[in-house]
Amino acid sequence: MQKRFLFIAFLFLTSLLVSNIVASKLVYLWGMILPAAVFVFPITFLATDTINEVWGKDRAKEVIWLGFLMNLVMVLFLQLARILPPAPVWEQQQAFDAILGMVPRIVVASLGAYLVSQLHDVWAFNFWKKVTSGKHLWLRNCFSTATSQLMDSAVFISVAFGGTVALPALVTMIFSQYLVKLLFVLIDTPFCYLTVSWAKKEVKVCGGEIQQ
Questions:
Q1: pTM summary value
Q2: Per the structure, how many domains does the chain have?
């Protein structure tokens, strides 16, 4: 059993599901309006880039589609919790609905942005890997993630908050979120090297082959 693969896959799934819940909160930092998920979702790209680099694009796509399925399962469970009758002594139903009531729309937005950005990331990562003949991990990590994050921001913000905030604010949110994500792309690169190196050790011990 490849425990390091499982750890990275579970990190991906946890980050994905948590980001869909916390995305309903808007925060104001550095003069920008941002969904709280902007600090969690970039981890998913680190995870898929690592899986792509070490185990290949097919395994990365498997994890992406598994994340899609688990998102749907999460929505069903959360909606079940919402519609169950609250106990007379529990007075938090209104607050519970106010927070989790946005989750279906957030998840629809996230799933659309998620599939577009993550599948593009896998394609772009392998494209740059071929261009560089398997060298310069930092380049394919940065280039693939940077373009994918722009797609994610544009689709997610438009679907999640379109009609609820003014158009200028919507555009500001898209580019504000993307600027923060670009910062995470730069921060992400050394961690990508670390996780790839860490994961490859297990592949070599297990006698597997590093995917190209």
A1: 0.82
A2: 1
